[in-house]
Amino acid sequence: MQGLMGGRATSPCIGWLAALALLLGVCLTPHEASAQAKFPGTSSETESTAPTPVIPADLSPEAVDALVARLTDAEIRALLLAELRRRADERAAEDSLGADTLETVQARLRAMATTIERRVSRWADALAKIGNRRERVAERLGRAQSGATGMILAALSVLLSGVAAALAVIWACGFWRGWLSAPQSGSYWDRVVRSIALGLVEIAPIIAFVAATRAVAPLVAGSLGPLVDYVWIYHVGVSYSWAFIVISRRAFAPDAPEIRIAHLSDAAARSIHRLVRRAVMIGAGGWLVAGLSPTLGFGFPPALVIVALAGTGVAALLVGAAIRNHGRIRDALRAVMIDVDKTPGALARIAVAAGPVLLITYIAGAWAYWLAHWLETGTQRLDGPAGTLVLLLMMPILDRFGTELCRSLIPSTSPAALRYRDVLHGTWRTVLAIVAVFVIADLWGLDLYGLAKGEAAPRWADTAFDIAVTLLLAHVVWRLIRAALYTESVAGSGDAEDDPTASAASRLDTLIPLFRNVLLTILAVVVVMILLSSAGVDIGPLLASAGIVGIAIGFGAQTLVRDIFSGAFFLIDDAFRVGEYIELDQDLRGEVESISLRSLQLRHHRGPVVTIPFGELKSVTNHNRDWVIYKMSFRMEPDVDPQKFKKLVKKVGAEFMEHPEHGPKFIEPLKSQGVYMIDDDSAQVFRVKFKCKPRAQFVLRREIYHRLREVFAENGIGLARRKVEVVSSGGESAEELAAALPEEVAGPKPA
Questions:
Q1: What totals of helices (H) and strands (E) does the chain contain, helices first?
Q2: How many degrees, rounded to 5, is the angle at CA 499 between CA 494 and CA 502?
Q3: CA 2 – CA 17 distance, rounded (Å)
Q4: CB-side exposure of 183: number of CA atoms within 13 Å?
Q5: Packing angle, helices 507-534 and 539-556, rounded to 10
Q6: Which residue from 167, 271, 441, 534 could staple onto 466, CB 3.0 to 4.6 Å apart?
Q7: pTM over 0.85
């Protein structure tokens, strides 16, 4: 089985392979399309009873007297019998609910074992005495007008007529098969449509086969003799098995990889289809051979044994395949249940690890369940085991269908579209899982909806069902809200000089968290009210009390209301956003780190976080909007030429505009504004300015200052030092006055 899975490219189909094969092989006994059908002669006797009169819904003493007056004695006895039986059934139901479950199961298993032992003993005795049925067989064969040879030839003519009709249809549909196997595009929907159309084309030969055999069989009925009763068994066995093989061929597409829907390699598709076909052949062969036994007069015990052996053979085949490919089954489950981009949960890891064991256990359990009922009653109890496996087989197909449907509804690949698509796909999977649970329970005879919402449903089940539905819908709504109001955290480190290019959040990024919290609060309140109402709590007084409490809180929390309304108006005016650097007064400034309903938090560039209620805000200076003009002053010597200064500044400005790191930060280059002021006779104050992006000025001013000092030094221009010149009233200079001072005051004279 080297090519059974074909590596990691395989899909979860190998995990569901056992489901399809078990259904095809073990349950290929579709007696008139019923999974509960029996072989003729095994049905229980039925009893006929007289019609029971109907009791009116509304009874009064007069109505009771009138009803009794017009009823006959037989009708009264029937009515009394129905009422007694109803009470007995209710009492039995109460007793069964009160009885110990383990004891009930043990009693049922003992009764089943006793019945199986008795029936098997009877079958063994019948098989041991099968030679005594020679006369019965001869009598059946004697019905053939042309003898045994003519019967065989007539059966072959029926078979050949069906085969000829099927081959004719296959030849006529050859063009369509070739055209449908060559897709025009590689899209998923094109493959789906072509696979379905090709499946319908391949079912046409089956229809032709059945129609031809059914048409020819009456013509040779005399020669067929006892095989006339076998024709319907033959039709069912051949047509159903052939149809299942067609379904398998279209699901795995071993002959048409261009339209294959499942993620399978060519080798894996061929291997899986061969395994399914082998299981179908075993089941169909057992059904056809078993049907010959009662038809030719050998009785039903051989037929029952042959079907049991065929079903056991199919189960053994599937269990063996699952054991040999347990590693590939685990890989397929991992590909479906674990997203490579996310950390797998504990439940997913456990399911992947235990998947092969659970699959093998389920196949064995389904076989034991089917075989026990087959041996006990001769009925095919396959609704639960086979139906569950078929549904599990359909789950990956339906999941892929939902994925492609979401991709078609939201074709965009933007982050917002991907979020919506993820929500839709998650909702699809949730609904699919819920529907699967209800369908599986119904297949096993358990009406979950009736147990929860039926007339006889207990109060706690009704309440639990309503709560589960409410929480599920709330979860879906909240996921949609999060997808629609999604934003990433953009709060910076708080150090504007270390991170001057940190982009501020957009206005929506600031408002979205507030909207999301408000909607979450509203959703939580609505959900709590619905849950309380589902639990039987009268929420009318609660709502009235909440209104009164709200009014009282409003009067007592005027400051809180002021803060909330002030914040709302500040946000409407777009005064600041998360991530922006603002200044509230000379000592209170920083980066907006977060915004709540009543306050904002500022992160000072030295680290502290300050929380300010909106109601205390008077004016806001925002340093992050659009652009910034920054001006720098330089005290130069009095003899510095302003034109030379301007040329040097212009040269430095051109250098910064071409700088790969700092150039993109500028909006307008560095330029000189000339002499700004004269500081007495000791210096000229020049001023330069530049226009840049918000918060880039902190780095640019540092780099510009260092570069200008280097350029001034290279060109012999020095910065003026601050100095004070003292002149006495007599006209002496400071040096002369210092020389006249005593030595102890003036200090030692220089050598």
A1: 25, 8
A2: 90
A3: 16
A4: 20
A5: 140
A6: 534
A7: no
pLDDT digits (tens, 9 = 90+) for 610-646: 888 887 787 788 877 778 888 888 888 877 888 888 8
Q: Is 280 helix (H, G, I), strand (E, B) or coil?
A: helix
Buried b (16+ CB within 10 A) or exposed e, 335-357: bbbbeeeeeeeeebeebbeebbe
More confidently predicted of 62 and 436: 436
Which amino acid appears at position 35 of this protein?
A
Q: Quote the CA–CA distance of 269 and 277 in Å, as a whole number.
A: 12
> Which residue type does 47 have?
E
Alpha-carbon span 614 to 66, nearest angstrom:
82
Asked, colleague to colleague, whether 530-622 and 626-751 share their fold, the answer is no
Degrees to nearest 5, angle at CA 76 with 70 and 80? 145
Residue spans per domain, the chain: 530-622, 626-751
Residue 654's pLDDT is: 87
d(CA 318, CA 216) in angstroms, rounded, equals 38
Q: Please write the tens of the pLDDT for every residue from 720-730.
A: 776 666 655 55
Domain 626-751 bears CATH identifier 3.40.47.10 = no
User: In the block, which residue shows the tokens 């005495």?
Assistant: 129
Paired tokens of 89: 């059934």
Q: DSSP states of 127-145 as a string?
A: HHTGGGGHHHHHHHHTT-T
| Amino acid identity for residue 398 in this structure | L
381 vs 523: CA distance, rounded Å: 47
Pairing between β-strand 621-622 and β-strand 581-583 as defined by DSSP bridges: antiparallel
Per-residue model confidence (pLDDT) at position 168: 92
Q: In degrees rounded to 5, what are phi and psi of residue 634?
A: -130, 125
Residue 391 to residue 437: CA distance in whole angstroms = 10
